[in-house]
Amino acid sequence: MKKLAIFTAVLLTSVFSACGFYPYGEDVRFHFLNPKNFSYQSYSSFYYSVLSFEQNSEAVISNQDNEKLWRKYCDNKVLIADISTVLDSFSFSDIQGNSPNPFLHYLYSQKDIEAINYLKFAKNCEYFNTWQDDPWERNENTATAKRNDLLNKATILASKSKKVEFKKRYAFLALRLAFYNKEMKGIEKVYNQYFSVDKTNDIIDIWALYFKAISETNPALKNLYFAKVFAASPEKRFVSWQYFASQVPVADVLNLAKNKKEKANVLLLYGLYNPDKNLENIKQIYAENPNYDGLSFLLYRELGKLEDWVFTPYYSLFYTNDDYWGSDPENENVLKILERSDIDRQYAKDVLEFINSVDLSKVENPNFWKYARAELLLMTKNYSESLNQVAELEKVLPSENLLRNNVEIIKALNLFANQTYGNAKIPDAAKEIIIKNKDNKHFIFALGRELEYLGNTDDAALLYASLNHPSIGNEYYNNVYYKSLKNSNHTYDTYYYDYFDYLDAVYSPEQLQSFINEINGLSKNPDSFYRNFYSINQSEINSLYDLLGTKYIRQNKLNLALNTFNKLGENYFDAQYSLWERDGKDNYYSSSKVFDQNPFYHLKYTPDFIPEKEHFRVNKISVTKKLIEYLNKANNPKEKDRDYYYFLVANCYYNMSQYGNAWMMRRYSVSSAGNYSIREDNQEFNTAGLAKYYYGKAFENAQTYKFKALCLRMQGRCENYNYDFMGENTTNYSSQAGNYEDRRFEQNKYYQDLKNNYPDQYEDMMSGCESFKTYFKARR
Q1: In a domain, 141, yes or no
Q2: How many domains is the chain partitioned into structurally?
Q3: How far apart, in whole angstroms, are the C-alpha atoms of residue 11 and residue 31?
Q4: Which residues, listed in sequence order, are joined to residue 496 by a DSSP beta bridge?
Q5: Residue 20 DSSP class
Q6: How far does the signal peptide extend, from start to end residue (predicted)?
Q7: Which residues, at least 6 apart from 296, have a Cβ–Cβ distance to it below 8 Å?
Q8: CA torsion angle for 331, 332, 333, 338 (degrees, to 10)?
Q9: What is the pTM of this model?
Q10: Mean pLDDT (whole number) for 203-211
């Protein structure tokens, strides 16, 4: 009997029209609570997550109540590990007097025949205590009959047993066998004979109550029993939660509770079923049983929720999972996301006020509650007071205490955030903490984001860059996904997990140059922190110079771009951007960085119509040089072929758009799904506006009708891209067909000009591209 989990991960089938991965939920959740640093492993199945609850073995392993009961039976003379080996791994035939196992050796040495016979009988029952005895149900009747036989033997042995502990153990086996045979009345009969709801002294009583709860027909009473089992047995917590009926009014169950402890147990399970704000429930439990570890765990869970609600949008700029399904993804705005974070900071303040009202001498773990206070103060941006609480904890927590590591993480976050804009740096007091936690990628990113928000983009970029190094575990499953403040709407590709892509999209050339200057000086920096934390290799630095030059291309600052590219030299670009040459095996290299054609003479999906007068190896540095050279010639009034050079320049700018063969001058990747970007040249890359301008300059300097018509034709093609970009096109077209113009002729002023002023050339120009060669040749 399984129940749907309350936090269900829903596939993004209806949100995006494009196929592929888009991070959400656990992919983007920010959290600093490390469960290993806290003492709530017995509740590990219920740690906060935006996904469903699931059984966690920690909850079982951390308790071992049955093993402890057996050890007590053996006068504490046997180790729990040896007992576990027999209970978990031994078969019926392994239980022999000559066994080297210390647990069995003790029982045989004591001639405890009753204990030995019980273990053998329990091993005989194991196969039948499961639903999986025969997945095809071919032997169902046989299994049922065998269970009935064992059940009858268990009840007989329980009645004949001389020791109370074995009476209960045999009776429990009978209960379990009755459950798997679906005999609810049998459960009631055995339970009433050997157990009592009011006497739950050991784990056997609790396990028996679990089956009693299953057979109970009163929904409120059933919930009460499961709450009692949940509180007492970590091993049974997950299944008790599954059976618990949260739709039963809590008041009905509380009315059946006999004391405050039972009320707290009930409230705990209802609290676990609440994915939203749970403060009122926590307050109720505190009023009933303040020393309850379940109360502390619910506070731990509430901190996990608040980390998601406050820190996920604040640091990643993604919606939290609970918000996402109610949002309009096409109009998602980062400012609205930050507003949501601020709203949840108010709830953090409410939880903080409750903690401030609590008598910490009454709670189960005062230091955890003080930690919670420190993190809530961070969430509410009361950094100074949070640091005071941290300092208090540092005085009482030894360095080897696991909780101290989480305290230090909160300390570092406070130190970073508690700075003024324009004066932020990596605080000295946080450097050792950063080194210690450099594999905690969400923590490191959060520190970088704090610096970025405060204007220190150099150190922010260094922290982001460090996320690229392999961390403990699988690096592919330890990514931080994030957005930029420049994101104004939700698009498929505007998230980042690589610092280079983020710098590519977000940093200005000035910011990037400053960062390059910093990393170039790291080796000479007297502060050992920078050398110990992360070192960027020369290959990465070269890539950053490449990016800097590319950013200047986007700004059309060609001389600055060329100066930057020259720092890398021809050899760098020969290796990176001239892979179109044969590799010696009659194959062409395949790379996103390949310049497959000369951008001055060739246009994609257009038959060649311009003879190549100059042949040169095509790469970023050579294209930039030639573009500057041709612009200088075109802009020279004394140049007799100005129209020619303007046309070549226009071709190059055209090819540097998403429609051309030199898009890699501006981008490191393109997508057939669309190339919307927050990069500053987004409109130019999608519309080829500079190409349209320089085709216009070629038109102004043209001397023949045919060449003027060709210039207008190319301007009209670019104008259509502008229509596409503005979302005004009404007719679908195939870009690979090479025919961009079979739509909206009436709205395209260049085509109208061509039609009205060059009627003799209009038909040739608009019927296709085959006449381009003739018209270009007619330039003179």
Answers
A1: no
A2: 2
A3: 22
A4: 482
A5: S
A6: 1-20
A7: 40, 363, 364, 365, 368, 369
A8: 150
A9: 0.87
A10: 96
